[in-house]
Design brief:
Elements (H helix, E strand, L loop, with lengths): L1 H4 L4 E9 L2 E9 L5 E5 L3 E5 L2 H14 L2 H5 L2 E7 L4
Antiparallel strand pairs: 1-2, 1-5, 2-3, 3-4
Length: 83
């Protein structure tokens, strides 16, 4: 997921699935090289660079137990943001 997103600007819908069902979040790589995460269950946050984005998102996924609950399937779809 990170390797695709860090190379191409835009929005991404990320589907995760597992033993508790499924969930979807949105990720965005902005043209100013900042990154956003939107989780409809909790929040939206924007980070200044790729290392902070990857570190925070991994930490958040672990704290929310998404790796345990939804770690069996992952699909990423690119979405063209409005111009």
């Amino acid at each position: 997921m990170w390797s695709v997103m860090s190379r191409a600007y835009g929005c991404y819908a990320v589907f995760i699935g597992g033993r508790l069902g499924s969930h979807i979040i949105a990720l965005r790589h902005h043209r100013d090289d900042t990154y956003s995460v939107f989780d409809p269950n909790y929040f939206q946050i924007r980070m200044r660079n790729k290392p902070s984005f990857i570190g925070y998102t991994n930490l958040y996924f672990r704290a929310a137990e998404y790796f345990d609950d939804y770690g069996m399937a992952c699909a990423v779809a690119g979405i063209r943001p409005p111009s």
